[in-house]
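Recall that a protein's primary structure is simply its ordered list of amino acids. Everything else, from secondary elements to tertiary packing, is in principle encoded there. The following example makes that idea concrete.
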Amino acid sequence: MKTLRDFNVKNKKVLVRCDFNVPLDEKGNILDDFRIKQTIPTIKYLAKRGAKIILMSHLGEPEGKVVESLRLTPIQEKLKEYLDYSITKTNDCIGKETKKRVLEMTSREILLLENLRFHQEEKKNDENFVKKLAKLGDIYINDAFGVCHRSHASIVGIPKYLPSGAGLLLEKEIRILSKVLKKPWRPLVAIIGGVKISSKIKVIEKFLKKADHLLLGGEIANAILAVKGILLSQPIPEPEVIKTIEKIDLTCPKLHLPVDIFISLAVLETGLKEGYLRQGGPGQIKKEEKGYDIGPETVKIFSRIIKTAKMIFWSGPLGMFEEEKFAKGTKEIAQIIARNHLAFKIAGGGDTVLALNKFDLFDKFDHISTGGGAMLEFLSGKKLPGLEALR
């Protein structure tokens, strides 16, 4: 796979696929600009070498329609804060006006194309749409690791028509995550929590083979315990996930599940019942209850293991950290990971990033991945369409 460094970009129109899909508040303000900041080194590299830089990204799910609240104007303003170059934006990502604007570009100029997903052809990987995008550039650079698991036009289509390579961010993601898979520092400890077991079951399978210890929490652990008959009267996942869980050996010495949890009533109409909270074992949860956080004994067990690690991978909170009374488990585990100064620490996933920001531990990790689903698929051993297209 070629990288940005393999090209002479001077006076060349360089199409850069970025992942500027950042969370916005109701007024359109950016809540977390982490993904934007991570692409800045690639943009600066191109600008210093005299490229004509054309940035493109999606934002949200406009479903192939122009949605005013999902225009990339906030992205444009945020980029201006980090770059000393002028940044202009088009009203569309294709069309006569966009093509004319690209032809007028000068060296070191930065142009941001409007939201790719305003066109349904982006997700469909429509060939005509691909060709229109490709005609805007001389070179294509993918710096959007977070969407490399999608077979979309701007990810897999353009490399068929232009010389292509990985940007600095994408190159870094591949290098670090490949080390976890191929040559990890040992002991390797993987910590997986969160809600969606369907998106994480394959990576759980992989880490049961690759890691020295696998620590599970959150809804992920609850789903496994439910399938195994330990959590009675609790929701169980879809049939395909059940088949995989049934193969998991709970007596495997690598596998560590919660031994105690904080329990509350789960009331659909009103949410958590105020004041109702108790601690117990996973097998003690009643039909009308739910486990929302790991307990102190589980924290102690997990902590002893984490302290021995030389490499740590973490994806997914270990409880409902958004609620203060269920945040303690996730916070304490995050702090213990941060205090292990001998380990190389990697984290990823939207909720994990939110938790690290909430607990002011973001800068204590060596690498925070910009990918959620892409990161999990990569670590599970799947081939990502975006990476295969560059090869």
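The chain has a mean pLDDT of 94. Residues 4-171 form a domain with the Rossmann fold fold (CATH 3.40.50.1260).
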